[in-house]
Design brief:
The protein is mainly alpha-helical. The chain has a single domain, classed as Glutaredoxin (3-Layer(aba) Sandwich). It has 7 helices and 3 strands. The protein has a 3-stranded mixed β-sheet with strand order 1-3-2, sandwiched between helices. Helix 1 (about 25-40) links the parallel strand 2 and strand 3 (about 45-50). The model has no long low-confidence stretch (mean pLDDT about 90).
Length: about 160
């Protein structure tokens, strides 16, 4: 199953959350829906967070890859990474990264990830650039397309 599993639910009922990590509407939805699901339903439902990238969010793809890198390094920290991105959301807007490089952005993500997954910048960069992370990141986007989800947030 693509995405990030939230909680331990093992029921036949599945809830898919489609969010863009750079989208301000997704952030608002996470503040309400995500926290409610995480706190009240995570042990009762099969809940999956599927990051998808909207075309006008330039950093979204790298944020998505960073999330799957965190999952690969320490799956228990994936939801913490989502929380950290949404809690400091303003730092990912397009304008402040307009004249900076992708390497600078990845270094910035590595500093955030180090706080979540206790991993070095070198290890994080190696993981985010891996074929596995690339495939997992694309998997959520393909899954969203199959489910006919084209905007965020969608539940």
């Amino acid at each position: 199953m693509p995405g990030i599993k939230i909680g331990t639910g093992q029921t036949e009922i599945k809830l898919d959350l489609f969010f863009d990590l750079q989208c301000s509407y997704s952030k608002k939805a996470w503040d309400v829906v995500g926290h409610s699901v995480e706190n009240s339903w995570a042990d009762q439902l099969n809940i999956y967070f599927h990051p998808i990238c909207l075309s006008h969010h330039r950093q979204s793809w790298d944020l998505t890859r960073a999330l799957f890198a965190v999952k690969s390094l320490d799956a228990s920290e994936a939801v913490e990474f989502i929380e950290r991105v949404y809690s400091d959301h303003g730092q990912f807007y397009n304008a402040q990264w307009k004249s900076k490089t992708q390497d600078e952005f990845l270094s910035h993500l590595a500093s955030i990830t180090g706080k979540c997954a206790n991993v070095s910048e070198k290890d994080f960069i190696g993981t985010i650039e891996s074929d596995e992370v690339y495939a997992n990141s694309k998997g959520s986007i393909h899954y969203a397309a199959v489910k006919q989800v084209w905007s965020t947030p969608s539940v």
